[in-house]
Target: DNA photolyase
Amino acid sequence: MTVQAAEEYVLGVLPKLGVNKRRELVRLVYEIAKRDGAPFSEILPAQKNLNFESAKKQLLARRYPVNFKTAAKDRFYLPKLELSPALQADLTPRPFYPKTVYIETSVQDSELAARVRAAFPNAQFKETDGKTQVGSPNFSRRLDTLLIHREKYDFLKPCPCSCAAACCGYNLINLGFGCRFECEYCFLQQYQNLHAVLLPANLDEFLNKIDGASFRKGPFDRPRIGSGEFTDSLVFDDLTRYSQKLVPFFRARPQLQFEFKTKSVNIGGLLEAGGCENVVVSWSVNSAKITDTAEHFTPGLSARLAAACEVARAGYRLGFHFDPVVIYDGWQQDYARTVEQMADTLPKDKVAWISVGTLRFSRELKKMIENRFPQNTILDGEFLLDFDGKMRYGDSQRKEVYQFLLPLLRKVFPHTHVYLCMEDPRLVQSF
Ligand code: SF4
Model:
């Protein structure tokens, strides 16, 4: 099935449509055919009095069976469907080994630069003044380039969350940009404009900014600072060894808590640094189906939970993020199985917090996902334009997820703070 075939089919059934109307029907026909595996002729049969309005109505009803009758019509987002094979993600497994490593002049003698030189002897090394643009024009080639730099601005900031969503008071420390995993929903695909992996060599300068800074704490007992916004917090830790500085730093500041957010099992540095009560190591968790099909190159749930048990034994506390929860046939059983596996495996008294959030994305990210992962199933759900301009499942479907997962998690982890992430404040209040 191709976009061109969908275009030709719609043109054949309704030859007199203008460009914009045809564009909407092509998208609907294509998305339904992809989701249902049905031929176009069954989705939009040629009928005698078929016109744009009747065709769109029947296609919307089939594409959005839960929301068609209740959602305002401007919440269905139907942009032109454009798929470019050149943008597809490369899902061939390979180790992280950049072809070119740029090191900024001011950090040439840093510990990180030395480690990188030793780790990638066959890479081409170049010195940069930090002003020249590096990296590939194609996001899928980002791992070819590594930039070791001195971060000058983006040390600490409040979590940008989503402009109108309920805020949990999170604070961010920006330890890197770019990731070697390929999660189909990752916002970096659309957000990252420098297609390379960036790692700052001046961690001490970051830490110097923390003392004296004021932090929000939201509904938690102490301010939370985390590092997993623009990269996975641990995926490069064997290279960066940031954990070796972060853990002792926060051990000496028990009034704060620091969170590593990861899907990796790269915990050697943490074990070496020794445990720490106010350092929380958090794993993103999901149903096995989503982990296996949409989080490419990441370790599976069992491996993540085994790593969590190890760091808990070393003295760290744990966090988990059910994010993004994806709705599909049978999601309840699959997510319940994940909770069951967590309950059977984890030391419950060590789990500090668990967040839950359903899949959401910007309009631009939707286009990126369908280009990079044309076979994805995560976009098959019913996503509507929402209160903050993002696309989300409708209110009733999100409520269903929260009504299912929150009581279950609170029952299994009665001493854990379970909360919603990036949600409509009205919805948050009801949970
Ligand atoms: S682990 Fe996080 S940062 Fe890495 S690809 Fe997945 S979502 Fe993106």
In short: The first strand starts at residue 100 and ends at 104. The mean pLDDT is 93. The pocket of iron/sulfur cluster is lined by residues 179, 181-183, 186, 188, 231-232, 263 (CB under 6 Å).
